[in-house]
Design goal:
GO terms for molecular function: nucleic acid binding. Helix content is 40%, strand content 17%. With 172 residues, the chain is α/β, with parallel strands linked by helices. Strands 3-2-1-4-5 form a 5-stranded mixed β-sheet. It is globular, with a radius of gyration of 16 Å. The mean pLDDT is 97.
Length: 172
């Protein structure tokens, strides 16, 4: 199984009404060099300026981004080249990231290569340390910049650290 760490940036709280502006994915392996970056044209006229500002892009910039169907098809192809069997979606905040990625896959391609489930890095760490208030974020090496590839890479670094520290049975 291939773990693929994903991070998204959006211009609002939910897909459909608002848009996924960009996302990054990193194959979790020893190198963390296999990445995907997608920038998507908004699908709605609605956006929350403060939410969009987190991405570092203006509305005008996002209007020139790629067609979401094209990007999601390219992402599905990338996932299939990285995973010899079932890919596993993992993220820092899978409730948010998964919601957008799953919706966009089903809406624009008709299916989701990840299937119907996702993993939450924060929950894994909280369970391992037995404290629901602990954060794994100190284990990141790459600075959290809100560029989704940087953020996915930092989370993948933390995941690898957790795997090693807790001797988890995960093949990378």
């Amino acid at each position: 199984m291939a773990y693929i760490m994903v991070d998204i940036e959006s211009d609002g709280p939910i897909p459909g009404d608002y848009s996924m502006i960009s996302f990054g994915a990193v194959l979790v392996d020893k190198t963390l060099e296999k990445t995907f970056y997608g920038r998507l044209k908004p699908i709605s006229n609605k956006f929350i300026p403060e939410a969009l500002a987190v991405s570092g892009h203006t509305r005008e910039e996002t209007l020139a981004f790629d067609d979401p169907q094209k990007v999601m098809n390219e992402f599905a192809t990338w996932i299939n080249t990285q995973s010899k069997d079932r890919p596993i979606f993992i993220s820092d905040n899978n409730g948010f990231d998964w919601m957008f990625v799953c919706w966009y896959f089903h809406h624009f391609t008709g299916s989701n290569p990840f299937g119907f489930s996702s993993q939450n890095l924060g929950s894994l760490y909280k369970g391992l340390v037995r404290d629901t208030f602990k954060s794994f974020k100190h284990l990141r090496k790459t600075r959290h910049t809100h560029h989704p590839v940087d953020d996915a890479r930092g989370n993948a670094e933390a995941f690898i650290s957790i795997i090693g520290e807790y001797k988890l049975k995960v093949k990378l």
